[in-house]
Design goal:
318 residues; mainly alpha; DNA polymerase, domain 1; hpI Integrase, Chain A; 2 domains; 3-stranded antiparallel beta sheet; two-stranded antiparallel ribbon; 15 helices; 5 strands; 53% helix; elongated
């Protein structure tokens, strides 16, 4: 249905009985290119560009019409079907993507926001206890996955942030890790526990890649030392899932749960909520405040506390 032209996906065919005419397809392709260009010019992240462009593609696929030709009734029908077939998260993203298209491409007022109003759902993530984190990481078989998962937990990282860590991001003099271009394209520093430094050093001696801390491991001997790309996200997620199953943990746990667990454990240990917000890279303190459902205390010796929390893993990971 879509093919790349100069790096931009354009529509080549609509598999509907009411498919657009060649002229309409040509007009939409031009608008779609403008949409991608506008997203880049507005400084949107790669992930946002993918989501917002997919929203426009989806409505064209489902209706067979250029979006600006859709009536209010047709839009209501489209979103009604979307609510039935997709999550509210997808519905919200699609609505935002189409709103962006109207404002920055068509240069029209988007007055259909009330067509669909996703409910505000406040859920609390499942977190693991210290013992459960210990058990899960210990259950991971391969050193590269074991080390990466521990690094993600001990630094409170997102999966992508952990996988793309570089040798130059580790400051072993100040015991800090530089997280670059994270969510919202923001950098931040997080404390580097001694146990994490030892784990990273131990794993680095296995691959000796001069740039990446978690390079792709190919079938050829020493290929990791020459790798230019990080390990695959899917393999990390599968390793985590297997370890959780092996430990018999019934909670809804994923790699991202390690980040939630890190924040909760720091809060339980007495680290100030404002510091945790900085370590996690949260834009709003409201996002971080959801961890206060467990405890709410304050303490200034954050680095000492973090080192104490991570010492239990030092022998098992290194």
């Amino acid at each position: 249905m879509f093919k790349a032209v100069a790096g931009i996906a354009v529509i080549t065919n609509i598999e509907r009985s009411y498919a657009m005419t060649p002229r309409e397809k040509k007009r939409f392709n031009a608008l779609y290119e403008d949409h991608l260009r506008a997203l880049k010019l507005q400084g949107m992240s790669r992930k946002t560009i993918d989501c917002y462009s997919r929203a426009v593609r989806r409505i064209v696929q489902e209706t067979g019409k250029v979006p600006d030709k859709l009536t209010k009734r047709e839009m209501k029908g489209y979103f009604a079907d979307l609510v039935e077939s997709h999550s509210w998260s997808t519905v919200r993203v699609d609505r935002n993507g189409l709103q962006f298209f109207w404002k920055h491409v068509l240069e029209r007022e988007w007055d259909w926001v009330r067509i669909v109003k996703p409910p505000k759902i406040m859920t609390l993530p499942d977190v693991m206890t210290n013992d459960e984190v210990d058990s899960v990481i210990s259950a991971v078989q391969k050193l590269r996955y074991k080390t990466c998962l521990f690094v993600i937990y001990s630094l409170g990282l997102r999966l992508g942030e952990g996988l793309t860590l570089r040798v130059g991001d580790i400051d072993n003099k100040r015991m800090l890790v530089h997280i670059r271009k994270a969510k919202g394209l923001k950098d931040r520093y997080v404390p580097l526990p001694e146990a994490t430094l030892l784990a990273l050093r131990g794993y680095w001696t296995e691959h000796r890649n001069p740039i990446l801390l978690f390079p792709t491991v190919g079938g050829v001997k020493k290929s990791a030392a020459r790798a230019k790309t990080p390990m695959d996200r899917g393999s990390m997620q599968r390793a985590m899932k297997g370890a959780v199953l092996a430990c018999g943990i019934r909670k809804k746990i994923s790699v991202h749960s390690l980040r939630h667990s890190y924040a909760t454990h720091l809060l339980e240990a007495g680290i100030n909520l404002r510091l945790i917000q900085e370590y996690l890279g949260h834009k709003s303190p409201v996002t971080t405040a959801r961890y206060t459902h467990l405890t709410h205390v304050s303490q200034e010796n954050a680095e000492e506390i973090i080192n104490g929390l991570m010492k239990r893993y030092m022998v098992k990971i290194a």
